[in-house]
Design brief:
Glycosyltransferase; mainly alpha; three-stranded antiparallel β-sheet; binds glycine; about 50% helix; about 400 residues
């Protein structure tokens, strides 16, 4: 009898929980519905017309599409976008396409000459495993993490970014994005030394990459034998002392994820300082989509145009949404990210179905001073926009999936 009562109680509690869960889902706002229709249409078409391994990266100035075969650092973003597209829509066809495009990157597991393994593998294979739990994705993830860790020099306390160029031991702020992959791999493959390397990299970067106002240099060159800082400079920004917009976004994202993985208060403090630099920046335009460099507004004498970079805005939105869940007074971060997302979802930035070579967002900047990818769609703008849309919907408990 007692058993029966307990069982009935458990059944009642479970039914109540399920109903409460269902009831708490809210209907999507109009802009979000439209956005998700565009996302689904563009991804479905793109997966049909592009070939796995030759993933769409951006649009050249002559109107042709720039593709991203390995070892292009952006090759993982299109498969990653397909995974998010699948999560947002529940459409099994997108899942099949996501798998097809992901598996075409298998040989990225052998890349050893760049730090970009987080971008390449965690966005593609990482999402594939997170969503499906299919063990076939693990060996590639294990090899990639091993190769990334091998680029960590304990003497310098950072992971080396690049092997090309005249620098001695270059580390760019973008490298902060790789740490989430290492933290995950440390647990997945029982490698605590990956955690130590990731946290040491974050602490060294905190010390050397940031200015007093919490803006960051793009590149710090180290002496590989002593660990001494040799030079602080830019590679993609306006000047050595300027604040390259996407670099600020990478830093914000990186420290937010470091905190999420370690709960080290130093990391969340840093993330909030960077957020404050971005959100209170006098050069942030009213629509909250920054120009490619915050200081381009100061460069009137060079007459450089303050072209907007939707990719920086998308990374900022995704990072701020995550940050909003990690702190007590996160509403201000959520609200700021929501404004960015609504702007990116307006006709100004969001493609019309069938246009924009099936990219989702317009108006990003790759590397302005190299005359490369100016005012173009970019695969990573789409990826972080989709991630941000997913985070927004999760935080707001929006129910979108069909059925
Ligand atoms: N990681 C290179 C870039 O953000 O352009």
């Amino acid at each position: 009898m007692r058993k029966k009562i307990i069982l009935s109680f458990i059944l009642f509690a479970f039914t109540f929980y399920c109903c409460a869960q269902k009831r708490s889902l809210v209907e999507p706002e109009q802009w979000l519905k439209k956005t998700n229709e565009v996302i689904h249409y563009q991804l479905t078409k793109a997966a049909e017309i592009y070939k796995p391994g030759f993933n769409p990266r951006s649009v050249n100035s002559d109107g042709t599409v720039r593709l991203a075969p390995l070892p292009d650092w952006t090759a993982g973003f299109f498969p990653g976008s397909l995974w998010y597209g699948y999560e947002l829509s529940g459409d099994k066809k997108l899942e099949e396409q996501a798998q097809r495009f992901t598996l075409s990157l298998d040989s990225a597991r052998y890349i050893t000459n760049t730090h970009d393994l987080g971008f390449l593998l965690f966005c593609s294979y990482g999402n594939a495993y997170r969503i499906t739990r299919d063990k076939q994705y693990l060996p590639v993830l294990a090899d990639g993490a091993k190769n990334l860790f091998a680029r960590f020099n304990p003497k310098v306390g950072v992971i080396r970014s690049w092997d090309f160029g005249d620098w001695h031991y270059p580390v760019i702020i973008d490298n902060m994005i790789n740490l989430e992959y290492l933290y995950w791999a440390a647990k997945a493959f029982n490698q605590p030394r990956y955690t130590d390397a990731a946290s040491t990299h974050a602490m060294t970067t905190l010390k050397n990459h940031f200015r007093k106002d919490y803006s960051s240099y793009h590149l710090v060159d180290y002496d590989p034998t002593t660990g001494k800082v040799l030079k602080k400079m830019t590679h993609q920004g306006l000047s050595d002392e300027s604040s390259w917009a996407r670099g600020q976004a990478w830093g914000l994202y990186g420290y937010t994820m470091c905190y999420q993985n370690t709960k080290n208060p130093k990391f969340i403090e840093q993330a909030e300082h960077i957020a404050s630099f971005i959100m209170n920046n006098p050069h942030m335009p009213k629509d909250k989509i920054p120009a490619w460099d915050f200081d381009v507004h100061n460069a009137l004498e060079t007459d450089l145009p303050a072209i907007k970079d939707a990719s920086a805005a998308a990374v900022m939105a995704s990072a701020l949404l995550e940050l909003s869940t990690q702190v007590k007074d996160g509403q201000k971060y959520f609200d700021y990210a929501a404004s960015i997302l609504k702007m990116l979802s307006s006709d100004e930035y969001l493609a019309k179905p069938g246009e924009n070579h099936f990219f989702i967002l317009k108006h990003s900047v790759g590397a302005f001073l190299y005359d490369s990818e100016i005012d173009t769609p970019l695969d990573y703008a789409d990826y972080y926009y989709l991630e941000a849309i997913k985070r927004y919907m999760e935080i707001k408990h929006v129910n979108l999936k069909k059925g």
